[in-house]
């Protein structure tokens, strides 16, 4: 085959109803459905070239050669689908603080799924791309789409994929992200959720309440009820972090500045600003709000933490070739 290079851009997403726990580690099948918002501010660009001259896969991230074992394992899935046995060069540029709770793996594997499948000669539809991206990182299946996205847990590889939800008119959801710590996490999402599933006595209740949260937040979206939407997202995030503290051995992604930011959001809410926080597997706080309130929220967080730590994002687009 000709060594054609394809480059894809995919945006990260923030889960509003969390995915936290797998029922199948190899296929990355989740225990519960989840819902997310794809963001315009944070993205990954990845170029893939299958080249018969290469003896091994080559992976460059942000200009540095990296251990590409996980990437090669993912490329093996693509190679099997395309019925080829050619090594690839993967060049990836991350415009997301890596592994710090801003879902960089979601944008990374969504971009890799699109670029690699095209470079391998495949022409996959969105559902097939979502299923493929899931094999690299669960949340990546949601980054194939823009805006609000639901990941259907499914029962096997064929039935576990994401699909977009309609965003109501004038429902101008915005996110103000506070980067508390952009360093690598001590416990990866994968390791953390595995420990929680295996050891938390509260995990069965999480699966039940996550399903209820999803149903209720979707109803709030339909009704354009932002307050209920935000309350459900905030409570769902806190339940996820409570699970981590109930695991054995227990662990915690929150840092003192995470708590401080959460208290600031609660104070703003008491003052009449509609804003709600959520956190993924990391210390960074994401504030869900409406576009009209961004200035006051970003300004208040900047006063406490510094303007360089505060990033504003709106709904982002689907993964696409560039």
TrEMBL record:
Keywords: ATP-binding, Lipid biosynthesis, Lipid metabolism, Lyase, Nucleotide-binding
UniProt domain Diphosphomevalonate decarboxylase-like N-terminal: residue ranges: 10-162
Keyword ATP-binding: yes
A GO biological-process term: isopentenyl diphosphate biosynthetic process, mevalonate pathway
EC number: 4.1.1.33
Pfam families: MDD_C, MVD-like_N
GO MF entries: ATP binding; diphosphomevalonate decarboxylase activity
Segments forming domain Mvd1 C-terminal: 176-308
Record-level GO cellular component terms: cytosol
Family: Belongs to the diphosphomevalonate decarboxylase family.
Protein name per UniProt: diphosphomevalonate decarboxylase
